[in-house]
């Protein structure tokens, strides 16, 4: 228990520095011995010089680990030390796990059966539909969905998991009490209730640029494999895939339109040997779980009832946006009947309205 408190102190003092922390504590023999070391002793540790050691000691003097633990508890924030039974087993197996994780929500043993779904912050409607469908299908089978709560694919992955009545974990590049992006405030609270929001950065830490590549190793490290949906050639999602490869985890990718720049990342991974994913069954097969978690064949999930007008309009929709005027022209219905049918299709979760009065399928029958 004493070591646990000193590990917390070091995580507060040196967040995002897993390798340096492990090396430092190994040098002194325990987190308490390292915490009590003076600047001259610290300067003799690997990776430290006199100037860095002096700065570390000055900052350390402002931290009371036991007091910080009490403050976390009062704010509804917990922390999991690597020695705790609730620290994720998958994460312990990577090269440089954070000694301490800050949490809102709860990590459960079942979360060890998990998949990361990551991708672009500016995806196409196709990418959003695929990410949501994959997450929903996997979550409905009891597989935890892990992502980074960023705009775009990450957000859709979390929403899909919740739609599948499953669990989801969000790994942040800021404090667990910082909502980023701001529009995900409600989603963040839903994740806390049905999973956990996780960070190695202390509460109130801002979303600094360097935090996100660091946190990506945790996204991949928590999971059995990573699925990239849409990503440019220099996307953070590819950094997550690289970490997954280094950690010995499965890497999978969803193919896309060859003319779309966001397909280049997934296509590059596929060329390099990543599993091509067309549906949840491919992911289960890659994980060796297809016999334990059979996915219903297309058409066997139970069809949503639609009126004749709704069916006619739905048949005109795809994952490519179609304008309202085009739907009116092709269907032959009056504008009022088209708008009414589209409204009911949207309520049923079968269509999605985009800015400019464009419509797409919502991805329920994508695979």
Let me know the average pLDDT: 90
Count of separate DSSP helical elements? 17
User: So what's the CATH class of the largest domain?
Assistant: Alpha Beta
- The structure class reads alpha/beta
Distance between the termini: 50 Å
Write down the secondary-structure element order.
Answer: HHHHHHEHEEHEHEHEHEHEHEHHEHHEE
Taken from the alpha-carbon principal axes, the silhouette is elongated
Biggest sheet: strand arrangement: 1-2-6-5-4-3-7-8-9
Radius of gyration, Cα only, in angstroms?
23 Å
What is the chains' assembly state?
single chain
CATH architecture descriptor name of the largest domain: 3-Layer(aba) Sandwich
Helix content: 40-55%
pLDDT < 50 runs, ≥5 residues: 298-302
CATH topology grouping of the largest domain: Rossmann fold
Count of the separate structural domains: 3
β content, as a range? 5-15%
How many β strands by DSSP?
Answer: 12
Major sheet:
9 strands, mixed
Give a description of the structure.
- By secondary structure, this protein is α/β, with parallel strands linked by helices.
- The protein folds into 3 domains: 1-74, DNA polymerase, domain 1 (Orthogonal Bundle); 109-287, Rossmann fold (3-Layer(aba) Sandwich), CATH 3.40.50; 308-361, Orthogonal Bundle (Arc Repressor Mutant, subunit A).
- The protein has helices spanning 2-13, 18-28, 31-36, 39-43, 50-60, 65-74, 89-92, 125-140, 153-163, 185-194, 211-221, 236-246, 264-271, 280-287, 308-316, 324-331, 335-347, and strands spanning 78-81, 100-105, 114-118, 144-147, 168-171, 195-199, 225-228, 250-253, 275-276, 322-323, 351-354, 358-361.
- Strands 1-2-6-5-4-3-7-8-9 form a 9-stranded mixed β-sheet, with helices on both faces.
